[in-house]
Write a structure and sequence with these properties.
This protein is an alpha/beta fold. The protein has 15 helices and twelve strands. Strands 4, 5, 6, 7, 8, 9, 10, 11 and 12 form a nine-stranded mixed sheet that branches. Strand 1 and strand 2 form a beta hairpin. The chain is globular. Bound molecules: [(2S)-5-oxo-2,5-dihydrofuran-2-yl]acetic acid and magnesium ion (MG). Keywords: Isomerase, Metal-binding.
Length: 367
């Protein structure tokens, strides 16, 4: 069970439909495939999606920090020494996606070694989650058509709407059009990616107060400390901290300071080990939790559902598991399928997925 090698492989797969939101846009999935090898011949896999506009990581930077700093610190450890590994990686500040991918690949390798699913190792609560689809910036009619297509083709009935444009009416018109076009049976919530001020956010939420929103997420920057507390005190739906609350310490600060009332857990930035810590904290604090998406491919999405299905709290709400539908292709031998609005974990050991060698050859950028 000893780790012998950690590989970081850059790959690029274009998006069929680029995702646009207040803090950036993504046209090509330029991710890093991480493979953790053991002395038993086991290989665990995970992917790191760089999000330079959110966490400052780039594809080149993720590869460099894994090859130069992290791999030498984990090679030689047993798959069971995950706490030692987490402590070693924590000596380096930042680099959340690089650390998370190593952590998840180690859990996958452990599951394959023991012949159990990662979900069983973590908590084993259920085997599937309802799916929430993310709608990026576009004209109202196009966003309604996209949501209707997701509902009709995949049975998805929960939508996260990207907001944060100016004037705020651009986005409130979209949410109104979605409610009118899809009716009361769908769940809608909004994510501003810090695009508005607190005052703009309050105005927008007031304008949308009749639309039955489920949540509001990161409408304005958490660094506008008093403005955000003021906003959260008057919004009458749970206010999700996403990029402002990555670590348990961030979550504690945001929640106890009154700057958020719910949290997003993203395995792409906290892996499984630290996502567990955030989950346990959220459970203790009695928070709403949404399993978020860092615009992951299929490998990242299977990681998210594997974790989300492990606990009651993380599987209660629809998880953001469908961004891969906007990609032109992927790396897995068997593509993920969203059926009746749900994504199930894979039955095999670990994460239960395999990388297709031909696809990896086609999309890797280092050969
Ligand atoms: C989200 O929830 O914000 C956009 C940037 C990122 O890191 O994740 C996405 C979705
Ligand atoms: Mg968000």
């Amino acid at each position: 069970m000893k780790i012998t090698r950690v590989e970081a492989i850059p790959f690029a797969i274009p998006y069929r439909k680029p995702l646009k939101f207040a803090s950036g846009e993504v046209h090509v999935a330029e991710h890093v495939l991480v493979r953790v090898h053991t002395d038993d011949g086991i290989v665990g896999v995970a992917e790191a999606p760089p999000r330079p506009f959110t966490y400052g990581e780039t594809q080149d930077g993720i590869i460099a920090v894994i090859e130069k700093i992290f791999a030498p610190q984990v090679v030689g450890l047993s798959l069971l020494e995950r706490e030692t590994m987490a402590t070693r990686l924590a000596r380096t500040v930042g680099n959340p996606a690089a650390k998370a991918a190593i952590d998840m690949a180690v859990w996958d390798a452990l599951g394959r070694t023991l012949d159990v699913q990662v979900t069983e190792l973590l908590g084993g609560y259920t085997d599937r989650m309802r799916v929430s689809h993310m709608l990026g910036f576009d004209e109202p009619a196009a966003m309604v058509a996209e949501a209707q297509r997701m509902r009709d083709e995949h049975g998805i009935t929960t939508f996260k709407v990207k907001v944060g444009r100016r004037p705020v009416g651009l986005d409130t018109a979209v949410v109104r059009a979605l409610r009118e076009g899809l009716g009361d049976a769908v769940e809608l919530y909004v994510d501003g990616n810090r695009g508005w001020t607190a005052a703009e956010s309050a105005m927008a939420m007031k304008e949308m107060s009749d639309l039955g929103l489920l949540f509001a997420e990161e409408l304005c920057p958490a660094d506008d400390v008093l403005g955000r507390r003021w906003l959260v005190s008057q919004v009458d739906v749970p206010f999700i901290a996403d990029e402002s609350a990555v670590t348990p310490a961030d979550v504690t600060r945001e929640i106890l300071g009154g700057s958020a009332t719910a949290i997003s857990i993203k395995c792409a930035r906290t892996g499984f080990t630290h996502s567990q810590r955030v989950h346990h904290l959220a459970e203790g604090l009695g928070l709403e939790v949404v399993m978020g998406n860092q615009i992951d491919g299929q490998l990242g999405s299977i990681c998210t559902v594997a974790f989300g299905a492990s606990y009651r709290l993380t599987s209660r709400r629809a998880g953001e598991l469908s961004n891969f539908l906007d990609m032109s292709d992927d790396l897995l031998t068997e593509p993920l399928q969203i059926r009746d609005g749900e994504l199930a974990i894979r039955p095999g050991a670990g994460l239960g997925v395999e990388i297709d060698p031909e696809k990896l050859d086609r999309y890797r950028q280092d050969n």
